[in-house]
Amino acid sequence: MIKKILLIYPPLPMSARYGKGLEKIGAALPPLGLLYLGAVLEQANFQVKVHDSDLLNSSLQDVINQVKEYGPDFIGIYCNTSNYHRVIEYANDLKKIRAAPVCLGGPHPIIEPEKVLANQSIDFVVMGEGELTIVELLNGLNNRQDLRAVKGMGFKTKAGEIIVNPRRELIDNLDSLPFPARHLVPLEQYRPAPHHYLELPMTTMIVSRGCPFGCLFCASRNVWGRKYRTRSVDSAIKEIKFLTAKYKIKNINFWDDLWGLNRAWTEEFCRRLIKEKIKISWSCERRVDTVDLEILKLMKRAGCYSIFYGVESLDQDCLDAINKGIKVEQAENVIRLTKQAGIEARANFILGLPHETPQKVKAMIKKIIKLNPDYVKFNILTPYPGTLLYQAIKSGKWGAFKEDYDRATGYFATFLPKGYKNFEELENIRKYAFAKFHFRLRYILGKILKIRSLNDVKKYWSGFRALIGV
Fold first, then answer.
1. Helices H, strands E: what count in the chain?
2. Residue 207 phi/psi, 5° resolution?
């Protein structure tokens, strides 16, 4: 009989994820996916422990010790593409000390369920939204039911046959899910990166799932689908009140892939925060074609201090190649409007896009410096399995591909556009972009003028030290 469940967020060294320098300020944020699973499992009367190796800086031996101490009947492990090989190694070692079923969930098992299940140490995979699937799977095992009836999972029969069931329908009513089981982790120990917060304590929330847009590089639709779904405003407000009352939270980062697509929802949410005088600082991620000055001003009044936009590039050919669906002028205008509304304008850029050249990047950096966003992140294009971009690049379109799951983090070059001489040139252009944007007198003075407390000094100093190491 399965009763005790162990959910593991696996170890992934900061240096392996971020590379030299940035590992010094790498964040450890609550694993909301596992905490949602923990919540539904507890509702179903299972006993649950969560081991977050990111937070605890755990070694494999630490995880093994946790397994020995707890004695789980079932082990679930989060698995994305960049940690896939490590997760398999962990599962192999865990199987040696505990003959409990091992189940992988997360982005990678969705893409390659048969390949994942071919590993001797993996018994099950959960594909997509796992809250309903995991409970049905465990109840099915306990009741000796036919697992072929459980949608959204794959498994191996006793004879070793690999079975992958049909995908489960998306959860339309997100209010039906309990709040994440944050009591399963030491919430006060999580550490945001310097740019993740305005004030502490800070935590994360999710109020929507899915994205209807068609960016070729994005893998999130494999998990959440393209149908955009939101929790009710009542549910979101209730969770915020819970976090401020129980954990004294002052800052919330909305970790949705696309926050606020529904304008009516956004307006109601902001007006509720204002009307009920809920004092909380918050940030979110949005597309540049989903806001205007009116909604930005309302968000500011409601406590929004920062918006992170997925701009990706300021070259139209590059944007069109990845089917971003925006115009350069839109991105430039929204950054100006956001700053005008008194909200920090943050922007993500992806280097190494199809049609890109070092010369284009240098021209783009000049534009970015002129716009002067409050924060800029430079990733390197990672073709993730299961995306349309991956399929195109794998076929030889646009350049050379050196597939390496272990380096699929967004900080290392695995795809080389035809406009670059070699992978080293691409990784160097990222270093150039970082230095050119951040090591400017205007930018540094702007940060100094924003200092209001000793905490601000510590935040900016740690960020500066990390940039030196880039």
1. 19, 17
2. -120, 0
Average pLDDT over the chain reads 92
Tokens 């972009």 belong to 433
- Distance of alpha carbon 180 from the chain centroid: 16
Contact 200, 183 (CB under 8 A): no
CA dihedral 215, 221, 224, 228 (to 10 degrees): 40
Cα Rg, the chain, nearest whole Å: 22
Q: Residue 187: beta bridge partners?
A: none
Phi/psi at 252 (5° precision): -125, 130
Q: How far is CA 418 from the centre of its chain?
A: 29
- Helix (H), strand (E), coil (C) string for 323-334: CCCCCHHHHHHH
User: pTM above the 0.90 mark?
Assistant: yes
Q: What is the pLDDT of residues 253-302, one digit of tens each?
A: 999 999 999 999 999 999 999 999 999 999 999 999 999 999 999 999 99
Give the bridge partners for 39, in sequence order: none
Residue 301: burial class (beta carbons within 10 Å; 0-12, 13-18, 19+)? middle
Question: Identity (one letter) of the amino acid at 465?
Answer: R
